[in-house]
Amino acid sequence: MPRSQRNDNFIDKTFTIVADILLRIIPMAPGEKEAFTYYRDGMSAQSEGEYAEALQNYYEAMRLETDPYDRSYILYNIGLVHTSNGEHTKALEYYFQALERNPSLPQALNNTALICHYRGEQAIRQGDPETAEAWFDQAAEYWEQAIALAPGNYIEAQNWLKITGRLGE
């Protein structure tokens, strides 16, 4: 049974109903509808922490989806799964692929910055301040891009940029 037919909570059920209605009324090619169904099932699995199932659904959605903009969101969500699994290198690969298809995806820029910041903190713990600064500078670049696209978001990142003197460098 597809995941979309076994949702237990109100929000998932509501999303599924709305998505099913949209699939019926919006003109789409059959492959696009099938891709969206896999994408929706991937999001549902991901929200329940079923990351292997989410990835299977996202990979199938990628196989079917041809629109670069829609593919960017699938790639972004694959990156989220890898981030959740602590696979930061893989996550970055998917965030970069998402940004290649959709450079106006601030959440991918933000998550890339978060990983760079995390790596900077790791370098500090390992006693390597030069490497840490390089990672922090990378984080600042990605956060500035994300903030430029979504000025009201990422307040903590804006504060970090101000506190560290990296705002507008």
UniProtKB/TrEMBL annotation:
Q: Which SMART domains does this UniProt record tie to the protein? A: TPR
Sorted keywords for this record are: Chloroplast, Membrane, Photosynthesis, Plastid, Repeat, Thylakoid, TPR repeat
Q: What is its main location?
A: plastid
- What's one GO-annotated cellular component? chloroplast thylakoid membrane
Give the UniProt subcellular location, in the record's own words: Plastid membrane; Plastid, Chloroplast thylakoid membrane
Keyword Chloroplast in record:
yes
The UniProt entry annotates TPR repeats at 35-68, 35-68, 72-105, 72-105, 120-153
InterPro entries per record: PSI_Ycf3_assembly, TPR-like_helical_dom_sf, TPR_rpt, Ycf3/AcsC/BcsC/TPR_MFPF
Extract the Pfam families matched here.
TPR_1 (PF00515)
GO terms of biological process kind: photosynthesis
Q: Topology versus the membrane, per the UniProt entry?
A: Peripheral membrane protein
Q: Which SUPFAM superfamilies match?
A: TPR-like (SSF48452)
Instruction: List the HAMAP family hit by this protein, alphabetically.
Output: Ycf3
Record's family?
A: Belongs to the Ycf3 family.
User: Which NCBIfam families does its entry note?
Assistant: PRK02603.1 (NF002725)
Q: What does this protein do?
A: Seems to be required for the assembly of the photosystem I complex.
Which protein is depicted?
Photosystem I assembly protein Ycf3
**Phylogenetic lineage:** Eukaryota, Viridiplantae, Streptophyta, Embryophyta, Tracheophyta
